[in-house]
């Protein structure tokens, strides 16, 4: 049975438990709640709130004092949760582009080993394999001979 009340909240009764799905974002701010249904269990005096995964159906008790880390961890390991697709990087093209940037801008070979530079590349695509200064030096020499 489904009904709505005046706060724009959908309430569903499932086997004696009441599930509510608020259409306003006034209560739960984390994006993690998009992947869970909130269910109130028990009698009126001792209701417990449970978050049910929309993908696998596993339930977790939730309360404002518990935060969202335990449901976030579930999503990371949930076998039925759709994962973000990362495209594979053409490593040869990547290395050639990095070598071109080093040559064009006069960067030192150690630039490829700078932590923040590696973080940027890994952020853009998790499958990128960063290279060492010796590898990029050899790539620069190959590119130089090729363009000569």
Task: Summarize this structure as a short list of keywords or feature phrases.
148 residues; alpha+beta; six-stranded antiparallel β-sheet; 4 helices; 21% strand; disordered N terminus
Please describe the topology of this protein:
Blueprint: E1 2-4, E2 9-14, E3 17-22, E4 36-41, E5 48-53, E6 59-62, H1 69-77, H2 91-105, H3 115-124, H4 133-147
Helix pairs in contact: 2-4
Summarize the structure.
This protein starts with a strand and ends with a helix. It has 148 residues and is α+β, with helices and mostly antiparallel strands. The chain has helices spanning 69-77, 91-105, 115-124, 133-147, and strands at residues 2-4, 9-14, 17-22, 36-41, 48-53, 59-62.
3D architecture notes:
The structure is a single chain. β1 (2-4) and β2 form a beta hairpin. This protein is 33% helix and 21% strand. The longest helix has 15 residues, at 91-105. The protein starts with a strand and ends with a helix. By secondary structure, the protein is an alpha+beta fold.
